[in-house]
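Document type: protein sequence-to-structure record

Subject area: structural biology

Format: plain text, a pair of labelled lines:
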Amino acid sequence: MSNEHESIRWGIIGPGGIAHQFSQALAQTQGGELYAVASRNKARAEDFAQQYAAEISYGNYQEIVSDPSVDVIYIATPHSHHFQHAKACLDAGKHVLMEKPLTVTAQQTQTLVALSKEKGCVFQEALWSRYMPCFAKVKTWIDSGEIGELQYITSQIGFAFSHLRNHRLTLPELAGGAILDLGVYSTSISQYLIGSHPTKVQAMGMINKDGVDQNTLVNLRHPGNIHSQFTCTIGAQCSNAMTIHGKKGYILLPHCFWNGNSASLYKDERCVATENFPHPINGFEYQIASTMESIVDGRLCDPRMSHEDSIGVMKTLDEIRQQIGLAFPDNIESCD
């Protein structure tokens, strides 16, 4: 930005399905505009740019990284490629908002965080739930003692994807499987609500014939003997609910808990409050606004999704993968 009154100019790397949701929200969020789109398929980038009135499109990623008019880049490629794309952006001095999971390994995340600090660039993880009013309210209920002393959190997350052929979730070369794509929600949200990283990880999983985890069951122990238990799957239908349990009551986040649409507070087996949180646009607006606030305020990340938290989540996911025997090709786990 040449001055503080100009709109922040966004670029997108990877104009796939989730980038459409992002662009719909950006178009209605004050202070930002979609300026450039990059894809390895030039025609795809052109079509996307035309649909969302972006000024320019590129048929490769290096051109958007080198464009001096781009202030910040939203990375929406498969997470197998997050590290190399984010590194190129940060090396070029671009701010970055990158989809979850941030990377494939904790070492990759640590490398990018260090580069963000070196370059003075915003680097935020797009774990959208962290920025939503619903989860702020749930954390307030917990911290103010509405459910008494916190004991444990349970959740399920999953869908029946495993029958699909050549879907990114079924491909080891794209770091597919349940734990990184879906289990990251349970891992990250429970860490946010509890307010600490786990001290012990226990995991069991089923690696399917494609070489990715189809079903993974996890128990995390946090300081104070608080537990978070979750199941993630790409092979079954789930309730997709989260429940936070305390000595005096519990909080229920219903179907698709990560969407942050509703939360109910129960005491003595009775619902005493239900709050609904309709998104003004589609839910992406919160992380977009947060990233632009970080740019304007000169902070490197939002404290609701801090670098320390992103690294902590990836360390937990690393340990889960190690315990269930889930490894990916060296080239996507590398920091080179």
User: Anything to note?
Assistant: The chain has two domains: 8-129+283-333, 133-276.
